[in-house]
Amino acid sequence: MKIRIKYSKLGNLKFIGHLDVMRYFQKEIRRAKLDISYSKGYSPHQIISFAAPLALGITSDGEYFDAEFNSVTTSAEMIEALNAVSVDEIHVTKCVQIPENAKNAMSIVAASDYEITFREQNDLSEKLLASVEELNKQDEIIVLKKTKKSEKEENIRPGILKLERRGDSIYMLLQTGSVYNLKPELVVKALYDLCGETYDFFRIYIHRLEMYYDKDGSLQPLYMAGEEF
Q1: Would you state the pLDDT for residue 145?
Q2: Rounded to an integer, what distance in angstroms lies between the CA atom of residue 118 and that of residue 130?
Q3: How would you classify residue 224: left for phi > 0, otherwise alpha for psi between -120 and 50, otherwise beta?
Q4: What is the pLDDT of residue 112?
Q5: What is the 3-state secondary structure (H, E, C) of the chain?
Q6: Can you tell me the distance from the alpha carbon of 48 to that of 65, in angstroms, rounded to the nearest whole number?
Protein backbone atom coordinates (compact mmCIF):
# COMPACT_ATOMS: atom_id res chain seq x y z
CA MET A 1 0.00 0.00 0.00
CA LYS A 2 1.22 3.48 -0.88
CA ILE A 3 0.87 5.90 2.02
CA ARG A 4 1.42 9.67 1.94
CA ILE A 5 2.40 11.24 5.27
CA LYS A 6 2.31 14.94 6.13
CA TYR A 7 4.36 16.34 8.99
CA SER A 8 5.57 19.59 10.53
CA LYS A 9 9.17 20.60 11.16
CA LEU A 10 9.46 23.34 13.77
CA GLY A 11 11.74 25.03 16.29
CA ASN A 12 15.47 24.36 16.26
CA LEU A 13 15.02 21.48 13.81
CA LYS A 14 14.93 24.11 11.06
CA PHE A 15 18.74 23.84 11.24
CA ILE A 16 18.66 20.09 10.48
CA GLY A 17 19.31 19.25 6.83
CA HIS A 18 17.17 17.16 4.49
CA LEU A 19 19.40 14.06 4.58
CA ASP A 20 19.24 14.00 8.36
CA VAL A 21 15.44 14.28 8.22
CA MET A 22 15.34 11.29 5.86
CA ARG A 23 17.47 9.23 8.23
CA TYR A 24 15.36 10.40 11.16
CA PHE A 25 12.13 9.06 9.63
CA GLN A 26 13.75 5.78 8.63
CA LYS A 27 14.61 5.23 12.30
CA GLU A 28 11.26 6.56 13.54
CA ILE A 29 9.35 4.13 11.33
CA ARG A 30 11.36 1.25 12.80
CA ARG A 31 10.80 2.51 16.36
CA ALA A 32 7.06 2.75 15.65
CA LYS A 33 7.20 -0.89 14.45
CA LEU A 34 5.35 -0.12 11.22
CA ASP A 35 5.36 -2.79 8.51
CA ILE A 36 7.22 -0.81 5.85
CA SER A 37 8.33 -2.40 2.58
CA TYR A 38 12.01 -2.82 1.72
CA SER A 39 13.70 -2.96 -1.64
CA LYS A 40 15.15 -6.24 -2.87
CA GLY A 41 18.81 -7.06 -3.41
CA TYR A 42 22.05 -7.05 -1.45
CA SER A 43 21.42 -3.72 0.28
CA PRO A 44 17.68 -3.46 1.07
CA HIS A 45 16.35 -0.07 2.09
CA GLN A 46 12.97 1.34 3.02
CA ILE A 47 10.83 2.34 0.03
CA ILE A 48 10.34 5.98 0.89
CA SER A 49 10.35 9.19 -1.16
CA PHE A 50 10.25 12.78 0.10
CA ALA A 51 8.65 15.77 -1.60
CA ALA A 52 10.50 19.07 -2.22
CA PRO A 53 13.27 19.39 0.41
CA LEU A 54 13.05 22.26 2.88
CA ALA A 55 15.98 24.66 2.95
CA LEU A 56 17.95 25.17 6.16
CA GLY A 57 16.57 27.84 8.47
CA ILE A 58 12.93 27.42 7.39
CA THR A 59 10.15 25.90 9.49
CA SER A 60 7.11 24.17 8.03
CA ASP A 61 3.65 22.76 8.66
CA GLY A 62 3.47 21.20 5.19
CA GLU A 63 6.18 18.57 4.65
CA TYR A 64 5.48 15.23 2.94
CA PHE A 65 6.90 11.82 2.15
CA ASP A 66 5.47 8.75 0.44
CA ALA A 67 6.21 5.23 1.63
CA GLU A 68 5.15 1.69 0.75
CA PHE A 69 3.88 -0.59 3.52
CA ASN A 70 3.17 -4.32 3.50
CA SER A 71 0.28 -3.81 5.90
CA VAL A 72 -1.33 -0.91 7.78
CA THR A 73 -3.84 -0.36 10.55
CA THR A 74 -5.74 2.95 10.31
CA SER A 75 -4.71 6.52 9.55
CA ALA A 76 -5.29 7.58 13.16
CA GLU A 77 -3.33 4.66 14.60
CA MET A 78 -0.36 5.22 12.28
CA ILE A 79 -0.25 8.92 13.17
CA GLU A 80 -0.39 8.06 16.87
CA ALA A 81 2.35 5.42 16.52
CA LEU A 82 4.72 7.79 14.73
CA ASN A 83 4.12 10.72 17.08
CA ALA A 84 4.58 8.51 20.14
CA VAL A 85 8.24 7.95 19.21
CA SER A 86 8.91 11.41 17.74
CA VAL A 87 10.55 14.55 19.06
CA ASP A 88 8.26 17.52 19.77
CA GLU A 89 9.50 19.56 16.80
CA ILE A 90 8.40 16.93 14.26
CA HIS A 91 4.72 16.04 14.32
CA VAL A 92 2.79 13.88 11.84
CA THR A 93 -0.59 15.45 11.01
CA LYS A 94 -1.96 13.49 8.01
CA CYS A 95 -1.75 9.92 6.78
CA VAL A 96 -3.59 8.94 3.59
CA GLN A 97 -3.55 6.07 1.14
CA ILE A 98 -2.84 7.00 -2.47
CA PRO A 99 -3.63 4.84 -5.53
CA GLU A 100 -1.07 2.22 -6.56
CA ASN A 101 -0.48 3.99 -9.88
CA ALA A 102 -0.19 7.45 -8.32
CA LYS A 103 2.96 9.47 -8.97
CA ASN A 104 5.08 10.21 -5.92
CA ALA A 105 4.90 13.53 -4.13
CA MET A 106 8.29 14.66 -5.42
CA SER A 107 7.19 14.44 -9.06
CA ILE A 108 3.77 16.12 -8.73
CA VAL A 109 4.43 19.02 -6.35
CA ALA A 110 3.71 22.25 -8.23
CA ALA A 111 3.58 25.01 -5.62
CA SER A 112 4.22 25.92 -1.99
CA ASP A 113 2.98 28.81 0.11
CA TYR A 114 4.89 30.65 2.81
CA GLU A 115 4.41 33.15 5.60
CA ILE A 116 7.20 35.66 6.18
CA THR A 117 7.38 37.39 9.57
CA PHE A 118 9.97 39.67 11.14
CA ARG A 119 12.07 39.23 14.26
CA GLU A 120 11.41 42.86 15.12
CA GLN A 121 8.64 45.22 14.05
CA ASN A 122 10.47 48.46 13.24
CA ASP A 123 10.88 51.03 10.49
CA LEU A 124 12.63 48.51 8.21
CA SER A 125 9.96 45.83 8.56
CA GLU A 126 7.22 48.40 7.88
CA LYS A 127 9.15 49.63 4.84
CA LEU A 128 9.38 46.08 3.49
CA LEU A 129 5.70 45.39 4.17
CA ALA A 130 4.72 48.62 2.40
CA SER A 131 6.76 47.63 -0.68
CA VAL A 132 4.86 44.35 -1.28
CA GLU A 133 2.16 45.98 -3.40
CA GLU A 134 4.72 47.86 -5.49
CA LEU A 135 6.71 44.68 -6.15
CA ASN A 136 3.52 42.86 -7.08
CA LYS A 137 2.81 45.38 -9.85
CA GLN A 138 6.13 44.79 -11.62
CA ASP A 139 6.10 42.84 -14.88
CA GLU A 140 9.67 41.71 -14.27
CA ILE A 141 11.47 41.06 -10.99
CA ILE A 142 15.18 40.61 -11.65
CA VAL A 143 17.34 39.13 -8.89
CA LEU A 144 20.88 37.78 -8.76
CA LYS A 145 20.60 34.02 -8.39
CA LYS A 146 23.68 32.29 -6.98
CA THR A 147 24.58 28.64 -7.44
CA LYS A 148 27.64 26.68 -6.37
CA LYS A 149 29.24 27.24 -9.78
CA SER A 150 27.97 30.61 -11.00
CA GLU A 151 25.89 33.74 -10.56
CA LYS A 152 23.27 34.98 -12.99
CA GLU A 153 20.38 37.40 -13.15
CA GLU A 154 16.93 35.84 -13.38
CA ASN A 155 13.39 37.10 -13.75
CA ILE A 156 11.45 35.44 -10.91
CA ARG A 157 8.12 37.10 -11.72
CA PRO A 158 6.64 33.99 -13.48
CA GLY A 159 7.30 31.89 -10.36
CA ILE A 160 5.26 34.15 -8.05
CA LEU A 161 1.65 32.95 -8.14
CA LYS A 162 0.47 35.19 -5.30
CA LEU A 163 2.11 37.84 -3.16
CA GLU A 164 0.30 39.96 -0.58
CA ARG A 165 0.63 41.66 2.77
CA ARG A 166 -1.36 40.12 5.61
CA GLY A 167 -1.15 42.38 8.63
CA ASP A 168 2.42 42.29 9.91
CA SER A 169 3.39 39.36 7.69
CA ILE A 170 3.86 38.59 4.00
CA TYR A 171 2.09 35.71 2.24
CA MET A 172 3.49 34.20 -0.94
CA LEU A 173 2.47 31.29 -3.15
CA LEU A 174 5.39 30.16 -5.30
CA GLN A 175 6.05 27.59 -8.01
CA THR A 176 7.83 24.53 -6.60
CA GLY A 177 9.09 21.35 -8.19
CA SER A 178 11.06 20.01 -11.13
CA VAL A 179 9.57 22.33 -13.76
CA TYR A 180 10.49 25.52 -11.87
CA ASN A 181 11.45 25.99 -8.26
CA LEU A 182 11.42 29.47 -6.71
CA LYS A 183 12.87 29.89 -3.24
CA PRO A 184 11.09 32.34 -0.91
CA GLU A 185 14.42 33.93 0.02
CA LEU A 186 14.72 35.32 -3.53
CA VAL A 187 11.36 37.06 -3.26
CA VAL A 188 12.30 38.56 0.11
CA LYS A 189 15.64 39.66 -1.38
CA ALA A 190 13.74 41.40 -4.20
CA LEU A 191 11.77 43.31 -1.55
CA TYR A 192 15.00 44.37 0.15
CA ASP A 193 16.45 45.47 -3.20
CA LEU A 194 13.32 47.48 -3.96
CA CYS A 195 13.71 49.27 -0.63
CA GLY A 196 17.41 49.90 -1.21
CA GLU A 197 18.32 47.75 1.80
CA THR A 198 20.83 44.92 2.27
CA TYR A 199 19.17 41.52 2.59
CA ASP A 200 19.65 39.86 5.97
CA PHE A 201 18.19 36.37 6.43
CA PHE A 202 18.49 36.63 10.21
CA ARG A 203 15.96 39.47 10.38
CA ILE A 204 13.11 37.30 9.16
CA TYR A 205 11.31 34.02 9.79
CA ILE A 206 10.22 31.91 6.82
CA HIS A 207 7.51 29.31 7.43
CA ARG A 208 6.16 26.93 4.78
CA LEU A 209 2.42 26.44 5.14
CA GLU A 210 1.58 23.76 2.57
CA MET A 211 2.65 22.03 -0.65
CA TYR A 212 0.26 21.65 -3.58
CA TYR A 213 -0.24 19.64 -6.75
CA ASP A 214 -2.13 20.61 -9.88
CA LYS A 215 -5.47 18.82 -10.21
CA ASP A 216 -7.26 19.83 -13.41
CA GLY A 217 -5.91 23.37 -13.23
CA SER A 218 -6.60 23.82 -9.52
CA LEU A 219 -3.98 23.67 -6.78
CA GLN A 220 -4.78 21.12 -4.07
CA PRO A 221 -2.79 20.13 -0.95
CA LEU A 222 -0.77 16.96 -1.55
CA TYR A 223 -2.76 14.96 1.00
CA MET A 224 -5.92 15.52 -1.07
CA ALA A 225 -4.58 13.04 -3.63
CA GLY A 226 -5.36 10.23 -1.18
CA GLU A 227 -7.95 9.09 1.33
CA GLU A 228 -7.84 8.29 5.04
CA PHE A 229 -8.21 4.60 5.87
Answers
A1: 80
A2: 14
A3: alpha
A4: 98
A5: CEEEEEEEECHHHHHCCHHHHHHHHHHHHHHCCCCECECCCCCCCECEEECCCCCCCCEEEEEEEEEEECCCCCHHHHHHHHHHCCCCCEEEEEEEEECCCCCCHHHHEEEEEEEEEECCCCHHHHHHHHCHHHHHCCCCCEEEEECCCCEEEEECHHHEEEEEEECCEEEEEEECCCCCCCCHHHHHHHHHHHHCCCCCHHHEEEEEEEEEEEECCEEEEHHHHCECC
A6: 7
CB 160 within 8 A of CB 171: no
Q: Cα 74–81–222 angle (5° rounding)?
A: 60
pTM tops 0.90: yes
